[in-house]
Model the fold of this input.
Amino acid sequence: MEVRADYLVLGSGIAGLSFALKAAEHGRVLVVTKKERAESNTNYAQGGIAAVLSPDDSFELHVEDTLKAGAGLCHREAVELVVREGPRMVRELMEWGVEFTKRKMGDREELALGREGGHSRDRIVHASDLTGREIERALLERVKEHGNIEVYENHIAIDLITEHHVFGVKGVPKDSITCWGAYVLDTNSGLVKKLLAKVVLLATGGTGRVYLHTTNPKIATGDGIAMVYRAGGKVGNLEFMQFHPTALYRPDADPDEPAFLISEAVRGYGGILVNKKGETFMEKYHPMGSLAPRDVVARAIDQEIKRSGEPCVYLDVTHKDPDETRAHFPNIYSRCLDVGIDMTEEPIPVVPAAHYMCGGVVTDLWGRTSIKNLYATGEVALTGVHGANRLASNSLLEALVFSDRAFRNSLARARDPDNFPEVPDWSEENVFNAEEWVLLSHDREEIRRLMWDYVGIVRSNYRLQRALRRIRLIAKEVEEFYRRTKVTIDLIELRNLTQVAELIIRCALARKESRGLHYNTDYPEPNPRYQRDTILQKRP
Done:
């Protein structure tokens, strides 16, 4: 089955949907999403969108906060353009129907602005503590109303369609690869479809599921990064996985379910990190205390846990007004109450969890990848904004800005006449080997535990090299099985997880220093010679 369109969007988070709404005014848009259309990392974003909207704030302050958090690796030009577009992006979301939290100021209402770790001013626009869900709601309502957008739910991209599919060409020059669409599996019927488009946007989100403990939903398996690398595109800075310092700790939690995030905004509100004895400890690690950047807080908690032998630390807001706490964080309060914790009366047990990938598919300032006709925005992309550590609430803003820029840059291409080559149908004569899959499926959990133990918050060359040897053995097994069996969503995800795990380890080994989110005990200090991105690219 072949479907042709002007635009193909892989992913249905804020990056993909905002692009699709704009593109639909100029052509037919196909949106592919692995699960239901509302399932994405955006939906789990509690904090908000950082934007300069108050008179005591400035673009310069927001830029400097971002550069400081990024530990010398942010691309200043990318940061500046994102920060300056912040107010316009917030207004655009409101025009699309997003209802942000407001506060009364005399006779008028204005947006309520919060503060999170690493920010020097109140600038977080939010919708209570469910900002991502509110944005998804509004965007999806607009998508449903638009006749030019067709959403393919329960579909997963297998691979990008490039020269080596169309012409069987090997060794295409790395700067000459073209994307014409993707082979996509309908997970309900098992049919593989050819979706062709003049412009392809990769908005597939993050890679959190490569780790044992993560705040990411089950769909975050690094699909976009894996597909681009296999196709010969550039990826980079994958050593910079941000571990959110405060995920709700539950000793009886199902490891296959996403860890519940206790938003950065709770610390911005006045929450204090304490140990089991109720003693504060963050002042030992950073002058900003509990409001330090996430990488510092995550390592501090990791060290406190290892030092004490306790399974967690605690986030304490019991000194705040209970009614105010419940009003600020209704979702967090309710979720904690569901597991027997009243956050107004007792501290919340928290641990770090894999949360956000700061690296990804390399793009320019227009969201263009190293593959022609292919754009990447959102968490899947390496735009240069986040550097070695993402500043809280910059991610939704970055996704909006770069999707807007990708849309504007792609207009000319989308207006061109169709010139698709003859793309072969997906060839699949093999059947699924259920018995062999039972054995192979255990690799998924082995990868996640291996990455958590050896490629986590604190790393060493020995652990990284050990992890790489094991991952390569698993990758060989998975690829051999993939080549001789019928594709399923579980197999596609396992193949991608294995690929991304290897890429993360290779990036980590390539960086001969500790910087931002990457801490290696063999190189404990930043090295000025390594103030550059770690880029990987293979010949397709």
Remarks:
- The CA atoms of residues 115 and 122 lie 4 Å apart.
